[in-house]
């Protein structure tokens, strides 16, 4: 892509998170799209949704 030494995959993920948060997408949907794991282990154990339909809107 031409970004060797200037950009990292983590930097691109941070950029995506920032832009999506600025567009007022639900934080849970953003985190699911970025494959982040919920830090709240109890919530994570009970919330098994993948937010697929809402993530499709986010990705479009």
Please render the helix and strand layout as text.
Layout: H1 9-22, H2 27-33, H3 41-46, H4 52-59
Helix pairs in contact: 2-4
Description:
- The protein is mainly alpha-helical and 60 residues long.
- The protein has one domain.
- The protein is 58% helix and 0% strand.
- The protein has 4 helices and no strands.
- Helix 2 packs across helix 4 (52-59).
- The protein starts with 8 loop residues before the first helix and ends with a helix.
Task: Describe the structure concisely.
Helices cover 58% and strands 0% of the residues. It contains four helices and no strands. The chain starts with 8 loop residues before the first helix and ends with a helix.
Total count of domains: 1
Rg, Cα atoms, Å:
14 Å
Please tell me the overall pLDDT.
86
Q: Which spans of ≥5 residues are poorly predicted at pLDDT below 50?
A: none
Report the portion of residues in β strands.
under 5%
Question: Terminal Cα separation, in Å?
Answer: 22 Å
Shape: globular
- SSE-based structural type: mainly alpha
The succession of helices and strands, N to C, reads HHHH
Largest β sheet strand count, sense and barrel closure? none
Number of strands: 0
């Amino acid at each position: 892509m031409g970004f060797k030494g200037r950009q990292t995959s983590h930097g691109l993920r941070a950029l995506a998170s920032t832009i999506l948060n600025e567009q007022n997408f639900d934080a849970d949907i953003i985190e699911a799209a970025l494959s982040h794991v919920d830090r709240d282990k109890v919530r994570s154990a009970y919330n098994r949704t993948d937010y697929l339909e809402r993530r499709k809107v986010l990705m479009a």
